[in-house]
Structure formats: C-alpha cells, structure tokens
Amino acid sequence: QAKKAGKNRYHFYSSHEHGGRINPLKMEMELHKAIERKELLLHYQPKINLKTGKITGVEALIRWLHPDWGMVSPGTFIPLVEETGLIIPIGEWALHAACKQNKEWQQRGFSTVVSVNLSPRQFKQSNLVQTIARVLQKTGLEPHCLEVEITESMTADIERTISTLQQLKKLGVRISIDDFGTGFSSLNYLKQLPVDTLKIDQSFVRELYKNPNDETIVKTIISMTHNLNLTVVAEGIESKEQLAFLQQHLCDEGQGYFFSKPLTKEQLEERIPDIQQIVKDHGISQDLNE
Ligand code: C2E
Ligand code: MG
Ligand code: MG
Ligand code: MG
C-alpha cells in the first residue's frame, strides 16, 4: 500500500508516528471534518526568563490526531490549510482553545501569557481584530494574557501592518515576531512596528558554539532588540552550551527542548517542578518575588 501511495506526485509527509505519505486531497477532506470530530488539539511549550527562571508564558502549538494516521504535525498540514483557506476556521479554533485554557489556568492560580501563532492568511483577514476581540470576550481572558506571533514575511505591506498591529495593541494583546532573522526586515522598518517581543529563529540558536557567524547574528539581534526596548526570546534551545551563551549575552527568555518539549496541558502541569529544577541546576537564580 505504501508503494501505491508512493506513486502520487504530490504528497505530504506526516509525522514520524505515521511515517507514510498522505494524498493532499484526502488530507484536505479529512481536515474539513477535523474540528467537528474534535481531532485537533493544542500542545504547550513553556518560555523561561533566563535571569529569574520563571515561566513567563506558554506557546500553543497545534496538533492533529487523526484516527488512522496518528499525530500529524503542523509542518505537514498548516501549509495545506493555508493554501485552501481552511486556516481561518482552524486558526480561530486554536485561538479560542488557547484562550479558554489560559483562563482555566488563571482560575486555578497559574497565571501566564499564552502565545498563539498566526498564519499570513489569518493576519491579512480584515476581521482579524474583531475575531480576537470576540474570542477574548467569549472566554473571559484578559487581553494582556494573550500574545500573537506573526512572522516578518507577513509584514510586507507596511501601512497595513502598522494599522493592524496598532489595533491589536489598542485591544491590549501582546505581539511577537516569530522566526526573527529569516526575513529581511530593516531596523528602520522594525522600529515602526508596535511589537513587544522578537523571537530569534531556532536556525541561529542551533549552531551556537559551532558557527561564529550565527554567534554574531545572535549577539547582534539581542543588542538590537534591547536598543529598541523590546524583549528577546531564543527559540530551539537544546543544550546547556547554547543556554550558557544566551545567558552570557543577556538574552531575556528562552524556549526549547532543553527546558521542555511542547506538552499536553496535563503533562505541562506535571512537568513544572522538573522545569524549575533544570533552571536551578543551570544557575539561573530564582527570584520568586519578581
Ligand atoms: P513556530 O511557531 O516557530 O514553533 C516552533 C517549532 O519548533 C514548534 O514546532 C516546536 O515544537 C519546535 N521546537 C521547539 N523547541 C525546539 C527545540 O529545542 N528543537 C527543535 N528542533 N524544535 C523545537 P511545531 O509544533 O511542529 O510547529 C511548527 C510550526 O507550525 C510553528 O512554528 C508555527 O509556525 C506553526 N503552527 C503551530 N501551531 C499553529 C497554530 O495554531 N496556528 C498557526 N497558524 N500556525 C501554527
Ligand atoms: Mg511560534
Ligand atoms: Mg519560531
Ligand atoms: Mg517556525
């Protein structure tokens, strides 16, 4: 059967759990039903303050648990739903689920900021701000407990980007630029955008201690971010060497497998003490009063 599927010229690879090829038409049909069948879920990955060790937020990352194919990663299906427009209902589902979860955490005494990724198509929707406002109202989550992540590539139309971001700011939502460094934003451009945070793309973090160019890039992004009075987050921290480099160069926050993989909400709740231990073992002072 794998052989037969292999004859399709266009195919998407699913995650390691499945390992096979899925016909995109079939996948699209299945995705149409995924929301109502409750096959979509969110995993959460914590972000850590590299000075205090506190968990400053969690990023919501979508997963698709298909009954036959198993866990399908967003890298496989987000491009497809982006192309077909299905990202609009799926993206709204993710936004709602993340806000609802954060509200529940808050009511149980775990107060945090949840970050939700927006795709280019979502960001271009004229009713994006209304949708977010409605989701916040429905879930009762305060706007400052929600952060949206956009990428540099979405911000090509400067006038429109500034206007959308200003409306989001007015609503009180935080804004982060994801995968920073992979696009081509100039400093002059960046300083006009009302954003709070830059996330250094994991491709630069991966080669720290190996590639001097990437070390220079990371140092430059950190100091530039601080000059603009923004917060800087490093993505994809996997080793203690990478962490040490980032701490030494005063990166504010970090995220990566070194602290925790993206987890279900139950797993995350269980893992918080372990994360605190990792943080302690690596000399990040824990100032609980902060
Ligand atoms: P992203 O927002 O840049 O998310 C970071 C990706 O890196 C995640 O992959 C995460 O699991 C992975 N990651 C985190 N730490 C490490 C690490 O230490 N090492 C390595 N190698 N990887 C790490 P994931 O969950 O497969 O998501 C991929 C992308 O799919 C995301 O990239 C985001 O662009 C998109 N995405 C995920 N959820 C949503 C969603 O709800 N809506 C939209 N529009 N896009 C989403
Ligand atoms: Mg992200
Ligand atoms: Mg990223
Ligand atoms: Mg990415």
From TrEMBL:
Domain EAL: 24-276
Top-level taxon in the UniProt lineage: Bacteria
Descriptive protein name: histidine kinase
Source organism (scientific name): Niallia oryzisoli
Residues of the full protein shown: 417 to 706 of 1183
